[in-house]
Write a structure and sequence with these properties.
368 residues; elongated; eleven-stranded mixed sheet; 12 helices; 13 strands; alpha/beta; two-stranded parallel sheet; Leucine-rich repeat, LRR (right-handed beta-alpha superhelix)
């Protein structure tokens, strides 16, 4: 079947079904070229550069096409020039592969820019989205769910694998996201989800293919753990949780951490990070009997207030951790002699970057 006999939507559907089929890109590029669309050459040049990445002629032509047409391919000046920071993107085989949209102070521009861009032909095979979270002074403004609503109303393509709600270079405590389950229609195909915000709620989240979940915050609330325990995670292998401090809303206790160690709904979890906690010593003791720990290969208690008391507990029952491939205890408060003792008994441990308590005591790494 020649390219003239095939509708462009059929060609795009074939690409979406198998984004690694190089011949499908070639057919689509021919189709665009025959219809006078310069993206056909853009695709062809990027395919050729995969085989010949140092070819100077190909590199020059790629740059020429980028200068001449890229702005139009990703929405034009009316989209790009109104943003606080121009959306950052990487290209793969003539399509946007990853897109990063920041969000200005008390602005809903991440949502509006996403809506403007997601339906563009160049976005049809996007695999990564990094979207800015609503931001206000000390996080005291109204909860902004606009980006969640945009994802609900206009879900990304099924090629999406990584989705991140991010505070980028801004203080994480100034950001607030709302109920993440609003965006459930966008989670159908993702395998990685990162939420970096000072305030958020998981809600009845549904992400059936999710393999990695990161909750990055300086103030984790107990209701997040309640929602996590109430959710089915049929594919989840890696869970990372930052607890934070009461000064920034982090009112979880050691008993809340225990609810993760006891969680019955994480059958495939092999990597667990319960880090950035103010109860590091107590947590070190709890993991030694935590029901989930025997199934793990990687355990992370880093960036917390863990000190020599917790280190002693780990040493006393170190046989319960021998099965771990890695044990991250970095950026805590373990003394040099205890570091040496731990490394001798648990050589898979990472104890880099130990800190020294000052007159105000010990701190977590991520708070404001």
């Amino acid at each position: 079947m020649g390219v003239e006999a095939v509708d462009a939507s059929e060609l795009l559907a074939a690409l979406a079904a198998d984004p690694e089929d190089l011949s499908a890109y070639e057919v689509y590029a021919d189709h665009l070229t025959q219809h006078g669309d310069p993206r056909g050459e853009w695709i062809a040049v990027q395919l050729a550069r995969e085989a010949r990445p140092t070819d100077p002629v190909l590199g020059m032509r790629e740059d020429e096409l980028r200068v001449a047409y890229e702005q139009a391919w990703i929405g034009g000046p009316e989209v790009l020039l109104v943003a606080t920071r121009e959306p950052q993107r990487t290209w793969r085989r003539g399509f946007v592969d990853s897109l990063e949209i920041d969000c200005g102070y008390e602005s809903r521009e991440a949502a509006s820019t996403y809506r403007d861009m997601i339906a563009l032909p160049a976005m049809r095979l996007v695999r990564e989205l990094h979207l800015g979270v609503g931001r206000s002074y000390n996080g005291r403004g109204e909860v902004d769910t606009s980006i969640l609503e945009a994802l609900r109303d206009v879900p990304p393509p099924m090629t999406l694998r990584t989705l991140a709600f991010d505070s980028f270079a801004h203080d994480v405590s100034w950001t607030h996201l709302g109920n993440v389950s609003i965006a459930n229609p966008a989670f159908a195909s993702i395998t990685q989800l990162r939420i970096a915000a000072g305030q958020f709620t998981l809600g009845a989240i549904h992400a059936p293919r999710l393999r990695a979940l990161e909750l990055y915050t300086g103030g984790l609330r107990p209701h997040v753990i309640t929602d996590l325990r109430a959710t089915e995670w049929p594919a989840l292998e890696r869970l990372t949780m930052y607890f934070g401090t009461p000064e920034y809303g982090g009112n979880c206790t050691i008993e809340d951490a225990q609810r993760i160690l006891d969680a019955p709904n994480l059958p495939h979890l092999t990597s667990l990070a319960l880090c950035n906690s103010m109860f590091g010593d107590e947590l070190a003791e709890r993991v030694l009997t935590g029901p989930i720990v025997p199934q793990l290969r990687r355990l992370d208690l880093s960036k917390s207030t863990l000190g020599d008391a917790g280190a002693v507990r780990l040493l006393q029952r170190a046989e319960r951790l021998d099965h771990l491939e890695s044990l991250d205890l970095s950026e805590c408060y373990v003394s040099r002699p205890m570091v040496d003792a731990l490394l001798e008994r648990l050589p898979q441990a990472d104890l880099n970057g130990q800190r020294i308590a000052d007159g105000y005591g010990r701190y977590v790494v991520v708070s404001e």
